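Hey team,

Filing this mostly as a record. A colleague (T.K.) asked me to run one chain through the structure pipeline before their review meeting, and I want the input and output archived in the tracker in case anyone asks later how it was produced. No errors, nothing strange. Just documentation.

Input sequence:
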Amino acid sequence: MDETRDERQERIVEEWSKTYRGTLVAATRFGKGHCIIKAIRRVLINPDAKVIIVVPTTALKNQFKARILFEQLSKFNIEVQVINTTIKSYHECDLLIVDEVHRVGADTFSKIFSCIKYNKILCVTATLERQDGKHEIIQKYAPVFHTVSLQECVQNDWIADFKIYNLSVELTPAEKAEYDRLTKVHNSCFTVFQWNFDLAFKCMSTKGAEEYAKQLDWEPKRVVATAVQWRKAMMGRNDIVYNAANKQKIALELFKKYPNEKFLTFCKSTDFADNLVKQYPNSLSYHSKFTSKVRDSILKQYLSTNIQVLNS
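Output structure:
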């Protein structure tokens, strides 16, 4: 009999528990989150165990916190931290989980293993190799113990087969003008930090900026102000791209062109998802601003009725 996805996930955790050390490389949508929860449950055989989950973004932190609540694990000592906060202090835990390790900045990533003392470690990623070569650090501290390829997932119907269509979206003249303005601010500030993301991010605090301020012969507050301005410009550009007016226009055209097809959209903001619902009545929003009970109800409605679009 062919192995089910649940059985494979159980086998992965069983394999990891032989050493309690390693990296799982598995295709997106295979269910790496399920493997993480299963690993946590295994360690929580000791109810006093402490677990730290390190993630690259606040969005992932919120997702994990919601997942822990859903899995009824909130009574245990489980912390979910964004890595840029984690590396600012020393930590100890029984189990360290590092999610999306390929997305962590180079200098930041190398600090994880020096600021956290752990007994067991599980790293999870969809792709091991990093452009900066830092995947060698992963192999040193948590060598790959299991790989689940995208091809294998599709062949076993663990994830649906798919095609990727890349549709370019034009910015409106107003969006383009603002994007260009922010780009000038971004580049001007980033040059100060030699185009080093980790350095710029570090200098957003006075303590982090002190050493670099001496190199520049600047006051620390000037370095901090430049770093903050750089980040605001970067985030501003992201917001323009994420919420581009023509994205919504193209999405609505696709919904109308294929009225008998079900759509699942992934939006960068809850506002974008809610705006799509306002413009296309035969759709629902599904995001973190709803309680888990409401989200379950929305999902059931989408799956069991003629609702065409679920915007998440």
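Quick notes for T.K.: Residues 173-242 form one domain. The two ends are 35 Å apart (CA to CA).
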